[in-house]
Amino acid sequence: MTRLKVLIDTAGAVLGTVREDGASGEGDGPVKGAFVAGPGQRIVTVDVDDDIVEGPPATLYSHIRNTHIG
Fold first, then answer.
1. Which of 3, 41, 63, 68 could bridge 37 with an S-S bond, Cβ 3.0-4.6 Å?
2. Computed from CA positions of residues 15, 21, 26, 29, in that sequence, does the dihedral angle turn out positive or negative?
3. How many domains does the chain have?
């Protein structure tokens, strides 16, 4: 399982994700980053299976919306 921070808008659309551990997945070491939610946005933390995280972004975003956002 991978823990992700997810930026979503008021409609529940996923705007972006970042791994909570800061891992980039590129093999060059950790990348540190953070979201700042703007007006009408919020940040949630979710746990997602590794195989979904490693797949296409559209699949990941759809999975997050359907299983964690509602």
1. 41
2. positive
3. 1
Query: Average pLDDT in the 29-41 region?
Result: 76
Beta-carbon contacts of residue 47 (< 8 Å; ≥ 6 apart): 1, 2, 3, 4
> Whole-model pTM?
0.77
Span 36-64, pLDDT tens digits: 899 999 999 999 999 999 999 999 999 99
Tokens of 32: 């540190």
Expressed as residue numbers, the domain containing 21 is 2-69
Residues in contact with 25: Cβ distance below 8 Å, sequence separation at least 6, in sequence order: 19, 54
